[in-house]
Structures are given as C-alpha cells and as structure tokens.
Amino acid sequence: MSEAPKPPKKAQPAKKPHTPHAPRSIAPAPTRATTPEAEISDVLTSVGPRLRALRLTREITLAQLSEATGISLSTLSRLESGQRKPTLELLLPLAKAHGVQLDELVGAPTTGDPRIHPKPFARGGRTFVPLTRHLGGLHAFKMILPPGEADESCPPDQRVHEGYEWLYVLDGRVRLRIGEHDLELTAGEAAEFDTRVPHAFYNVGDRPAELLSLFGPQGERLHVRAKPDTAP
Predict the structure, then answer these.
(1) Pure H helices in the chain
(2) Which residues lie below 8 Å from residue 142, measured CB to CB, with a gap of 6+?
(3) Which residues, 6+ apart, have CB-to-CB distance to 105 below 8 Å?
(4) What's the CA dihedral at 220, 223, 224, 227 to 10 degrees?
(5) Does this model's pTM top 0.70?
(6) Over 60: is that where the pLDDT of 174 sits?
C-alpha cells in the first residue's frame, strides 16, 4: 500500500539582516548658571583670605599695616575674617601698601591673557618691576639700583628675615655682604642665600645696576652660587 504524499513545507520568512542600534544621545547634566551676582559674591568672599595670606607673606603685623594705611586694627581684622565687606575705599590703600595691583588683590577673574603688565614702583631709591602677578609663593622682580646708593666707608646695615633669595646680575656691579663674606657680582653672576643670615647688597658702580630677584618666605631656593671676588 503506497504512503500518502506529505504536505509541502511552509516557506519560512527571510531573516532580516542584523543592524546595530544607533547609540542613544545622552543629554549633558544640567549645570548651574553662574550669574554676575554670584561671580561678584565669590570674588568678595575670597578677598579676606587673600589679604591675610599677603600680609603673612610680607611678614607684617596688623598694627604695622594699620599704621601704613590709616585703617583701624578692628577693620583690618574684620576684613581678613570676612566679617567686613571690602570696599574700594579700603582696598585702594591696601593695594598701595602691599605694592600690588587692585585686580590682583581681589583675585578678579582672569581674562585668559597670560601676559603680565607690570607697574614699576620705587622704594628706598630703588626701582622694582614685578614679574609675577600671583599672591603668595615665589615672587620675581627686576630691580634697578641707582649708582652711589651706598658709601663704601659706611656700608648699609645687614638685615635678616625668613626665606631664601636668589639674585642674578643683568648689568653693572653689585656688592653682596652676607655674614662674614664680602662678594662682588658682575653681569652673568648669581647668588642664592638663606635670608636668615645677615645680608645686604648694593650698587658699587658708576651707573645703574640691574638684577633679577626671586624670593619667597617658604624657603624656595635655586642652587646657583656666585664665585667669590678674588681681587685684592
């Protein structure tokens, strides 16, 4: 007996080619909008700690700063602690006393321009050109010492203070007296020393002497030493 014919198989639908899913875009997390009022508030809040750090860096007391600026001790103390809102009338004499620009004193937001626009100032007949603009840490200056600023028969008194200092003579002749050492530095020579050792330096030439000075109260030092003057 012959078998019954089997029914034809149903045609299977063609499989669709696999395509990877497109990555889903993830929206960035919302950020808090910074308003001009918030920026101003942040700047004013940072003034107190900056004033205190600058004063401690320069190693002066509130009483000395009060005498230099005419601002009362209580006002200066409240400014540093953030209990007193800084005003232009208070900040201008403080910037002048510290020898810094007003925008540096308040920590104004940077504009992205890395250039420094130094403003020279004079102290004791010497001209200082700031080469750094940040408070605290290491400071760099170009110094111009006038000729005849010291009498060789009566040299300036040696002074001491915390920190380290590095000098590099650009032009002229500079006499460095540090402890029992008496050195003469000329263009291209450098010296570094602990400023807790009694020291003094001054121009001994007949024209202005120019030098670079790096110093900081935390003991930063560059290991460059000047050769002693071998002339009799």
Answers:
(1) 36-57, 62-69, 73-81, 88-98, 102-106
(2) 128, 129, 131, 170, 210, 211, 212, 213
(3) 47, 50, 51, 54, 91, 94, 95, 98, 135
(4) 120
(5) no
(6) yes
Amino acid found at 138:
L
Q: Which long-range contacts (CB under 8 A, 24 or more apart) does 13-18 make?
A: none
pLDDT digit string, tens, across residues 107-130: 665 555 666 667 788 888 899 888
DSSP code of residue 192: E
Instruction: List all residues 6 or more positions away from 109 whose beta carbon is below 8 Å from its beta carbon.
Output: 39, 43
For tokens 């910074």, what's the residue?
A: 34
Collect all residues with Cβ–Cβ distance below 8 Å to 205 and sequence separation of at least 6: 147, 172, 173
If you search the block for the tokens 């750094």, which residue do you land on? 132
Q: Are strands 121-123 and 126-130 parallel, antiparallel or unpaired?
A: antiparallel
* Interatomic CA distance for residues 177 and 192, integer angstroms: 12
List the beta bridge partners of residue 199: 159, 178
